Amino acid sequence: MRRRTMASVTANRVDFIEALKRIKQVVGPKGWTNDLESMLPYMTDWRGMCGTEALMVVRPKNTEEIAKLVALCAEASISIIPQGGNTSLCGGSIPQNSGNEIIVSLARMNKVRNIDPDNYTITVEAGCILKDLQHAASKAKRYFPLSLAAEGSAMIGGNLSTNAGGTNVLRYGNARDLVLGLEVVLSDGRIWNGLRGLRKDNTGYDLKQLFLGSEGTLGIITAAVLKIFPEPTEVCSAFCAVPNVAAAVALLELARSESGDAVETFELMPRLMIDLVIKHIADCKDPLSERYDFYVLLELVSTASLDIRLSERLELILSNAFESGLVIDAAIAQNETQRQAFWKLRENASESQRIEGASIKNDISVPISRIAEFYDIAWIKVAEMEPNIRLVAFGHIGDGNLHYNLQIPEHSEKNAFLARCEEFNGVINDIVLEMGGSISAEHGIGRLKRKELARYKDKVSMDLMKTIKNVMDPGGIFNPGKVL
């Protein structure tokens, strides 16, 4: 891939400056800034990682403006960092160290272009905030199921570019499973219009899949046709204490089989996670009177009238789970307020860890059947390396995904702890690989996991990925230094 050096910038200074000038003209005076203070929020991600200073932040208002500015960047070899809500956990949406990058924020492209309730589709622009998208679907008496803790600020373009997971993957799949069509600006400024709301289209390669999960390295997603679903008619939630992780996995099987596969959410939470949330987040309370080592947030969802109410089915499931020893205590939400109180504990897991101090984050997946085995083996290995380390392992075990996070030992020095990140992650990822898992279940690769990807991904896959990158972005202008 061709990379622009500062020497080449100097050699072609006129073209470079002219390109920046024309980009400003394309987006208009309200569509760009090079003021450092104004740019800082775009250069710093949720984890506090800060990229080097970008040339400017550009905020185009439509696809045509993006196409024009991409063409100008391609001509002048200016790199582009596509950015949605900047909620990346892997440094995928901030500048690196080239000093030759512009950030293209999709924030102004936030329209819902069309809702087709009969076709069960919604067409939205990439800057549409996930929560707003959910509300738009709800107004049409439909349901968009992608849900995650950052949904109040995360934008759908970023969700699709990273193939976001979230809490409802068990029932509806990852972000890519919710996409029927895309509109994408390519590296030469052309617009690929694949906005088709078809569930059957067998006319060659499924091109949209190239861009879903590619983290903005192959093109800029500007709009999408997404699947929507019937609105739930009944949602039932239970906060369950379980004796161990193996019991949680067994409870999942029981709940799926006895509910007619109505399980939408199945989230594992350890005691330490609950303690940190209650410690740092206001108005969070323990749902149960006793303390236990592990908990599961279980939700059943129905979109149809059933011969037995879902709440009765949930009570029957829990009754059977009590008898078999899979559940040792539980609270069932009696109203939406109680349900949201359960969710507040889960959704503030990452924020409470951030407030508590440094942590080493792992976003892994293994087959569901091996979740308990992985949990125990990895913990033994990590504890041998650092007996005082605190494990905060939580997540979507209904789809095999654990956020296996290591919290800094109390009274330890931050930099010394973080300096061991590669050491700890190497041990954890080796176990993941042995169990046929993935080192990144839903957070992507970004900047932080490039070395790990090169180590754990097989050579043929890496060669194919590099070939696709070279063909789709021969100038290397899209999100350089990310993924590959």
From TrEMBL:
InterPro entries in UniProt: FAD-bd_oxidored_4_C (IPR004113), FAD-bd_PCMH (IPR016166), FAD-bd_PCMH-like_sf (IPR036318), FAD-bd_PCMH_sub1 (IPR016167), FAD-bd_PCMH_sub2 (IPR016169), FAD-linked_Oxase-like_C (IPR016164), FAD-oxidored/transferase_4 (IPR051264), Oxid_FAD_bind_N (IPR006094)
Annotated FAD-binding PCMH-type domain residues: 49-231
Cofactor: FAD
Keyword annotations: FAD, Flavoprotein
Keyword presence, Flavoprotein: yes
Family matches, as PROSITE patterns: FAD_PCMH (PS51387)
UniProt keyword Secreted, yes or no: no
Cited Pfam families: FAD-oxidase_C, FAD_binding_4
GO molecular function: catalytic activity; FAD binding
One of the GO BP terms on file: respiratory electron transport chain
Family: Belongs to the FAD-binding oxidoreductase/transferase type 4 family.
The protein, known as: Glycolate oxidase subunit GlcD
Organism, scientific name: Candidatus Endolissoclinum faulkneri L5
